[in-house]
Design goal:
The chain folds into two domains: 166 residues, 3-Layer(aba) Sandwich (NADH Oxidase); 26 residues, no CATH class. It is built from eight helices and four strands, in the order H-H-E-H-H-E-H-E-H-E-H-H. Strands 1-2-4-3 form a four-stranded antiparallel β-sheet, sandwiched between helices. It starts with 17 loop residues before the first helix and ends in an 8-residue tail after the last helix. Bound molecules: flavin mononucleotide (FMN). The site of flavin mononucleotide has 9 residues, from strand 3.
Length: 214
Amino acid sequence: MQTTTIEKTARTRVPIADVLRTRWSPRAFTNRPVENKNLLALLEAARWSPSSMNEQPWHFMLAAKHDDPEAYRQLYKCLSKSNQRWVHRAPVLLLAAAKLHNARTGEPNVFAWYDVGQSVAFLTVQATALGLAVHQLGGFDRGKAREIIRLPDGYEPIVMLCIGYADSPEVLPDDLRVREEAPRFRKPLESFVFTEEWGNPSHHINSIPSTASN
Ligand SMILES: Cc1cc2nc3c(=O)[nH]c(=O)nc-3n(C[C@H](O)[C@H](O)[C@H](O)COP(=O)(O)O)c2cc1C
């Protein structure tokens, strides 16, 4: 049967870059492996993200289902049951971890989590540009992950990601298909961009008609 993927393009109030507009987090993935050069492009994008003091605290455990089946199985085991229900479709798993201390001074790096998040954002945008999809996963057992990947002290597991080519929602169980097809939602700009006083919606936003927003 011919299946079709869905588009969940953001309905924005003003135009934004296509890669940001079209990025979303699917649960349906095809079993097409991710080409190694594309995987490397994702990691290269993460590598070129900015970081506090250029500390580059990000580290990634990478497992491709077809090339590293045992490593994939080990990472998959760390996921919550609700994530395992659909993540098995994705051909690539990543676990992002942060180095928590500044390499030069040994002081805690308070931006470590922030910087790992930013590198993951770069990776995700690069994936979209290549026609790939990324779904980030906070639902995993950090203790189990630490043990399985033998994470040294001074590092923290931050987030897992599954990566692949999006498939039609029809491949999912009914409850997940409904979620996959549901409209996307974002809070309005007025609720989080302020000027002059906290809670006072910025006049920069008031000049944009809100009817165009989602
Ligand atoms: C740090 C983080 C953790 C997340 N954890 C999960 C998760 O465990 N399971 C899941 O299905 N989605 C997870 N998501 C995906 C979010 O639910 C999703 O990004 C959000 O609903 C917005 O949808 P969009 O990415 O399609 O715009 C996570 C996203 C982030 C950034």
